[in-house]
Structure formats: C-alpha cells, structure tokens
Amino acid sequence: MLCLRMVNEFVRNNRDPSHPGRRAGFAVAGVITGGLTALIASRTDKPARTCALTFLLLPDVPFVLGLRPAIVAGQLHPGMVPAYNATHCLAGAAACCAAAPALRSPAVGVAGLAWLTHICFDRAVGFGLRAPDGWLRSRSPAGNPAGTDFPRAQIRRR
To answer: Using one digit for the tens of pLDDT, what is the confidence trace for 130-144?
Structure first.
C-alpha cells in the first residue's frame, strides 16, 4: 500500500513526463505489475502465458509499423499516431485488468497486467503519448527535428 501511495504521489506532483520523479514512479509500477504478471502467469495455464507475452509486445506494433524511412528520427508516421496512442493509453490496460474478475478469466487479467507493464516501462524510459504530427507530446514543438526537451508550457509561450 505504501508503494502504491508513493507512485501516486510521484505521478500527481510531477506532470512533466520527462521528470525523474514521474519516470521513477512508472519504473516502480512497471516492476510491480511485471512481477504480478510473472507470478500469475506462472500459476495458470499456457493460454494465459501466451496472452502475457503477446500483450507485453503488442503495443509496439504501431510503433514498428510507423517507422518509415522518410520520417525524421524520433518522429512516428502521423498515420500511425492514433493506433500508437490507443495501445499506450493506461485506461485500456486498466479496463482489461478490471474485466478479468467479471469474465472469470485469468488470461484476460494477465494480458491486462502485461499491457500495463509495457506502458509503465515505456513511460519510465521517456516514451509517452504522441502528438498528431508524430512527435512525443513532451518533446520539441511540431516540425522541430532537434528533439530537444521542452516543458509544454514553454512551447505555448513562444
């Protein structure tokens, strides 16, 4: 309980995704959800383990498909942004976890935890949701290929 309270404190107080406190909070959450995923998957049947592995890797499919040679390094193809954001939204993973008890399916619960683990580790290393133009929302303004870290408030003031 104390660990979850610490994670909540980090996330609430540090809105900037590149802030070390927020990233550390997501790292802790990723370790916790990853441990739960491994524990539950090891105690269930093979379909649950397959779901865990699939949902651990599946959110990066839009990222891989969005890497095109004509795009500047660090920018995702704008056509893949909606799919990328949908697979990296915490609400979808949380809904999957919440549906597991109602469906009485450990495979759905393990899939949701694996998906949540993936999202937490992505956020811990600095990957968040993307802007419509394909850049990370916390990074440089649209059209700036430099990829310099700017807080969102500074971008709006320019």
So the answer is: 998 888 887 645 544
pTM: 0.75
Please give the Cα distance from 59 to 66 (Å, whole number).
12
- Distances in Å between the Cα of 36 and the Cα atoms of 75, 80, 91, 126 are 33, 31, 18, 23
Structural domains counted in the chain:
1
Full DSSP string of 74-138: T---GGGHHHHHHHT-HHHHHHHHHHHHHHT-HHHHHHHHHHHHHHHHHHHTT---B-TTSSBTT
> What is the average pLDDT score of the chain?
80
Q: Give the model confidence (pLDDT) of 43-76 as tens digits.
A: 988 888 898 999 999 999 988 888 877 677 778 8
The residue among 98, 136, 112 whose CA lies nearest residue 16 is 136
Phi, psi of 130 (to 5 degrees): -105, 150
Range of the domain at 126: 2-157
Instruction: Kindly state the tokens that stand for 123.
Output: 């956020």
Neighbours of 132 (CB within 10 A): 11
